[in-house]
Amino acid sequence: MTTRGRTPGRPGVVTMSACGTWRTKLITAVMSATEPIVEIPAQRMVSRLKFLGAAALCAVALQIMASSAQAAPCGNTGAGFEAWKRVFAGEAQNNGSGPKAISALMATRYSSGTIAADRSQKSFKLSLDAFMAKRGGAAIAAKGKSLKAANAALFASVEKRFGVPAGPLIAIWGMETGFGAFMGNQNTISAVATLAYDCRRPEYFTEHLYAALKLVDRGVLNAATRGAMHGEVGQTQFLPKSILLYGVDGDGNGSVNLNTKADALASTANFLKGHGWVRGAGYQPGQPNFSAIQGWNAASVYQRAIAIIAKQIDG
Predict the structure, then answer these.
(1) Model confidence over 56-112: pLDDT tens digits?
(2) How far apart are CA 131 and CA 54, in angstroms?
(3) DSSP states along the chain
(4) What is the pTM for the complete model shown?
(5) d(Cα 173, Cα 167) in Å, to the nearest integer?
(6) CATH numbers and ranges of domains, the chain
(7) How far apart (Å, rounded) are the C-alpha atoms in residues 138 and 46?
């Protein structure tokens, strides 16, 4: 690896092995630079500026290398998880995580169940008809219509606030947890930590782990919080970063609890609005709001199912 600087015979490039020497010379030069800079001849001035510039670049490169060497390494089995936690805990502390968050992180366990679920999301590979049948699309639409009528005031309030009608919200609610009937029983912090450690998508879930730790410090989550296999929580299944970005109070009690119907539905509407939902526009494929539904879940078959069920509910 090389970075911009200078090395003999190749102007403009310096090798990393030379940086230690540059750093030593830089310290010596700074400590011995007693003459006023205005008295330095022009040629010496140029030479010194080039030297200082190259040395400064070396210092930056050395810092990057040190940071990379200290970064928590990913793993494909649980063997390195405990060591990874210790390294990540140090990173988290440096990023502002407090004692409660670090304690929750250190209490996590590698979740083989989470890894198995992550590797076997076979329903998303089904045809649309097969997916609808497997997920009970007709039953979601039928129950969704009755829930829309029974919660008319809530859905009217949410639509007034965010511009999202009842249909898509109810479709997501039914698809994710059967209208809150089953929100999962996996330890949330362990699930997210496992996926942040796993080599398949560490960057994506590292963001969610930092968000989860922040939520622990705020008292929204704790070491015992339980949810779905990938770390989603609540009646519409929010990942930690989405809670931070889109979680809102839907029942006016001054707090956000996605295990409650009102907060979960209002937060889901806020998520869709945050992903470009246009008040009054259509949400079928090719219409303006379908892209917001795509933001909720990356699987095409899921997106189309939500649009179909939502339309059946809204009529």
Answers:
(1) 444 434 343 344 335 678 999 999 999 999 999 999 999 999 999 999 999 999 999
(2) 60
(3) -EEES-BTTBTTEEEGGGHHHHHHHHHHHHHH--S-GGGS-HHHHHHHHHHHHHHHHHHHHHHHHHHHHHSPPPBSSGGGHHHHHHHHHHHHHHTT--HHHHHHHHT----HHHHHHHH--GGGGS-HHHHHHHHTHHHHHHHHHHHHHHTHHHHHHHHHHH---HHHHHHHHHHHHTTTT----EEHHHHHHHHHHBSSSHHHHHHHHHHHHHHHHHTSS-TT-EE-TTS-BTTTTB-HHHHHHH---SSSSSS--TTSHHHHHHHHHHHHHHTT--TT---STTSTTHHHHHHH---HHHHHHHHHHHHHHH-
(4) 0.77
(5) 10
(6) 2-70 (no CATH), 119-184+231-314 (1.10.530)
(7) 77
**Angle ∠(56,65,211) on CA atoms, nearest 5:** 110
186-237 pLDDT tens trace: 999 999 999 999 999 999 999 999 999 999 999 999 999 999 999 999 999 9
Nearest to 238 by CA among 269, 284, 199: 269
CA proximity to 269, closest of 155, 147, 143, 150: 155
CA torsion 285-289-292-293 (nearest 10°) is -50
**Six-digit token string for 283:** 């949400």
Q: In the Cβ-directed half-sphere of 294, how many Cα atoms lie within 13 Å?
A: 11
State the residue for tokens 């949810």. 227
CA distance 174 to 312: 13
CB 22 within 8 A of CB 57: no
